[in-house]
């Protein structure tokens, strides 16, 4: 680990106040639902009330009789193309399935859209839904992994045998069975994690309208991937891509749920195109909980072999992910099993590895990305294996990790991934020291003497970030994300406007990326402005996911700013008759080294735009440059260690978090305050998955959690204060030295909480491996119920 001294004049590395806050806190933000256009209509969707059925009929004739209803469209009316996500894998590994924008012949989950009702106001649209009459020929629903694999199981998709969309075995070390046969210690876990909703504060929504002047369909939508929405909309609507413009205003969170193309935004666009009137659709909270993209329902059977000193020798894992009814676009149903299979070894030196990853399709709402994508789950599996091995070998849980974490870099793992330098051991040691310094080990012992149950749990992990095109190509995706493009432009007032293909939905891009540009050009940050989220203004971009905004997008921005700086220096040098390397940029001006000559940026811009005859022939007029950035290796890895201290309350089974410590290393922190906000928010979502949130269904496929009375979301009362320590191992593969920071909190929290709960349960002899951990489960565990009998 290295430390980089900060230049006090630089903004990168400082907690610059968020530039977004004054607008947002004063209520001046502009979200999709704030958009009101002349003649705007409102849309809602007739949705399936059964989980699995052939569609006998969708009778919407009576809908038009409802006061205020203007139009209603079914799949037959709109004749849209399907949304099809593809992997370049053989059918034995991946089965592509088509997701119709509106269901045609069959419904595959409760909440699937069947028709779109368009009315003069939102209330009339809701009234119109009740007039629709849908007849079903019901089929037995497939509601679990076991049901999906059953020999006589009904098929969710006729083309997917055994209801399997993905079945890959990425790694299988020769001789691994012999390693297990001869190992002194073999431990196993059988872990299930609950289905979750990403639950952004702002639900999904779209305002679509036809622009006659531009002959263009304009979609104002809250998405993390505007260019991919444009591509899918143009193809489904059979328009040239130029004829579709996607604009993203302010967005109230996404967490991955808005990182896929939704059917509803395409249907709303189709209705606006047909009616030539603006159409607004805003998802209500019930639909957001039951019909949006979900995540996390996974089942791991894993075993690990250790030597007598506690060093891991081999890992063998079977991963099954319940992906719901359809593949999401563009990532496909492979997003969870492929992530888990490729990266499960994590921070540990693993000599031998075998894994099988499968995605099953069931009659539930589809699965999409959610903050962390499988990493919270496989980290939990790995950490449970180490805890179990520590117990079997009578080793301290921290010590067994210490003996296994990667310490020599770069390190190429058994998974064929090369890990760049990180602070794996340092973060583990510092986290343990922090817990000990606060006396939690003594408090645990004192509580045990009083008959109370306090436990301490750790988790160590890395977060692969900076996925470039090469990394995504390894998944054999047909749509290969990776690069980013940035345009940086200076006007005649010396103000800089720059673009990024990433998409802000709470990560402070307006602040952090402006810090990068301001530093590169020696410019006041007040004179730097970001544009994003408009496919007509942004050349191209893959949006925001996988902690790529600063690693990939920020690198392109820095390169663009550097290119603009080179042009500013060249113009100034030509005026002074010196070489460009004799010019430095600072304080909003070009300055000749070791001389008093100064040209302000306004003066240089006047030459570039208004007095182009003064430019040398080899310098083009204007001050606009474009830069691209991609990563052509395996990406970079942030890392962290989390520690959690809990107390279990015997009377209620309540899990109270007494302390939470996070030691994180995301390379150069562009804005430490923003990084801490990402850590705290991520940890809150990780705790939510560990203790509270779960989407459940009854035997007929009806969602059981349709509101916050049933879908249990933690409040500020349940989320503890978090002690955060920052380490800094600059990244050699990004232009800023930064690694990603967006998902780490969520990745580490479930394992830390689960391990702490199990530590508190030590006297009972019961161990838990599933999440969420409910009070009922803990209450029964404190009374000695076996693990697999704990679910209530």
TrEMBL record:
Q: Does the keyword Oxidoreductase apply?
A: yes
Matching Gene3D superfamilies: Aldehyde oxidase/xanthine dehydrogenase, a/b hammerhead (3.90.1170.50), Aldehyde oxidase/xanthine dehydrogenase, molybdopterin binding domain (3.30.365.10)
What domain of life? Bacteria
**Which InterPro entries does this UniProt record tie to the protein?**
Ald_Oxase/Xan_DH_a/b (IPR000674), Ald_Oxase/Xan_DH_a/b_sf (IPR036856), Ald_Oxase/xanthine_DH-like (IPR016208), AldOxase/xan_DH_MoCoBD1 (IPR008274), AldOxase/xan_DH_MoCoBD2 (IPR046867), AldOxase/xan_DH_Mopterin-bd_sf (IPR037165)
Q: Does the keyword Oxidoreductase apply?
A: yes
For this protein, the record's SMART domains field holds: Ald_Xan_dh_C
Q: Which Pfam families match?
A: Ald_Xan_dh_C, MoCoBD_1, MoCoBD_2
Which keywords belong to this entry?
A: Molybdenum, Oxidoreductase
Coiled coil regions, renumbered to chain: none
Domain Aldehyde oxidase/xanthine dehydrogenase a/b hammerhead residues, every copy: 26-140
Q: What is this protein called?
A: Xanthine dehydrogenase family protein molybdopterin-binding subunit
């Amino acid at each position: 680990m290295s430390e980089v001294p900060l230049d006090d004049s630089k903004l990168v590395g400082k907690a610059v106040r968020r530039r977004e806050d004054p607008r947002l806190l004063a209520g001046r933000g502009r979200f999709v639902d704030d958009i009101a256009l002349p003649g705007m209509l409102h849309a809602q969707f007739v949705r399936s009330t059964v989980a699995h059925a052939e569609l006998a009929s969708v009778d919407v004739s009576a809908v038009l009789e409802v006061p205020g209803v203007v139009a209603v469209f079914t799949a037959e009316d709109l004749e849209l193309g399907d949304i099809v996500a593809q992997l370049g894998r053989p059918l034995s590994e991946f089965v592509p399935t088509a997701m119709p924008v509106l269901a045609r012949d069959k419904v595959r989950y409760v909440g699937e859209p069947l028709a779109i009702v368009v009315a003069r106001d939102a209330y009339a649209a809701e009234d119109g839904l009740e007039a629709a009459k849908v007849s079903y020929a019901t089929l037995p629903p497939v509601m679990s992994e076991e049901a999906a694999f059953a020999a006589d199981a009904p098929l969710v998709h006729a083309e997917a045998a055994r209801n399997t969309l993905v079945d890959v075995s990425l790694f299988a070390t020769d001789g691994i069975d012999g390693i297990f046969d001869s190992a002194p210690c073999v431990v196993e876990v059988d872990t299930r994690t609950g289905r979750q909703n990403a639950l952004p504060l702002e639900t999904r929504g779209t305002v679509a309208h036809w622009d006659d002047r531009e002959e263009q369909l304009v979609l104002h939508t809250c998405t993390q991937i505007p260019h991919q929405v444009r591509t899918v909309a143009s193809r489904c609507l059979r328009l040239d891509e130029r004829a579709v413009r996607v604009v993203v205003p302010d967005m109230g969170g996404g967490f991955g749920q808005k990182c896929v193309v939704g059917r509803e935004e395409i249907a709303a666009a189709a209705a606006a195109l047909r009616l030539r009137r603006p159409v607004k659709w805003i998802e209500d909270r019930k639909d957001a909980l039951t019909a949006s993209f979900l995540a996390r329902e996974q089942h791991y059977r894993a075993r690990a072999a250790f030597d007598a000193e506690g060093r891991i020798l081999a890992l063998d894992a079977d991963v099954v992910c319940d992906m719901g009814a359809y593949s999401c676009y563009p990532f496909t149903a492979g997003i969870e099993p492929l992530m888990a299979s490729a990266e499960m070894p994590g921070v540990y030196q693993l000599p031998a590895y075998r894994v099988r990853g499968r995605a099953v399709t069931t009659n539930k709402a589809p699965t999409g990305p959610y903050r962390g994508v499988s990493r919270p789950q496989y980290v939990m599996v790995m950490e449970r294996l180490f805890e179990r091995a520590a117990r079997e070998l009578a080793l301290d849980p921290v010590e067994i990790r210490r003996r296994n974490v990667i310490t020599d870099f770069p390190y190429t793992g058994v998974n064929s991934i090369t890990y760049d330098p990180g602070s794996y051991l340092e973060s583990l040691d510092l986290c343990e020291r922090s817990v000990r310094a606060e006396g939690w080990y003594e408090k645990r012992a004192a509580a045990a003497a009083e008959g109370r149950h306090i436990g301490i749990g750790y988790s160590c992990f890395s977060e692969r970030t900076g996925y470039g095109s090469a990394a995504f190509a390894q998944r054999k995706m047909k749509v290969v994300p990776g690069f980013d493009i940035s345009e940086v432009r200076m006007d005649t007032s010396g103000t800089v406007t720059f673009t990024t293909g990433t998409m802000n939905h709470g990560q402070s891009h307006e602040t952090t990326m402006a810090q990068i540009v301001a530093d590169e050009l020696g410019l006041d940050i007040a004179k730097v402005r970001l544009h994003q989220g408009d496919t007509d203004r942004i050349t191209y971009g893959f949006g925001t996911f996988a902690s790529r905004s600063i690693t990939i997008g920020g690198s392109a921005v820095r390169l663009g700013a550097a290119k603009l700086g080179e042009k500013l220096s060249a113009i100034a040098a030509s005026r002074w008759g010196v070489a460009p390397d004799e010019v430095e940029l600072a304080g909003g001006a070009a300055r000749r080294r070791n001389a008093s000559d100064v040209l302000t940026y306004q003066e240089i811009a006047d030459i570039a735009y208004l007095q182009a005859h003064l430019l040398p022939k080899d310098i083009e007029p204007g001050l606009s440059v474009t830069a691209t950035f991609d990563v052509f290796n395996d990406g970079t890895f942030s890392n962290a260690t989390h520690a959690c201290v809990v107390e279990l309350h015997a009377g209620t089974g309540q899990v109270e978090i007494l302390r939470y410590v996070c030691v994180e290393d995301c390379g150069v922190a562009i804005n430490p305050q923003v990084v801490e906000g990402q850590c705290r928010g991520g940890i809150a979502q990780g705790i939510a998955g560990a203790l509270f949130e779960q989407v459940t269904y009854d035997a007929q496929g009806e969602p059981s959690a349709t509101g916050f009375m049933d879908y249990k979301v933690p409040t500020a009362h349940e989320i503890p204060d978090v002690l955060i320590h920052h380490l800094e191992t600059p990244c050699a593969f990004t232009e800023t030295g930064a690694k990603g920071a967006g998902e780490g909190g969520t990745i580490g929290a479930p394992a830390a909480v689960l391990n702490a709960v199990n530590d508190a349960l030590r006297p009972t002899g019961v161990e838990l491996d599933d999440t969420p951990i409910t009070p009922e489960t803990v209450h029964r565990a404190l009374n000695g119920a076996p693990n697999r009998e704990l679910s209530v």
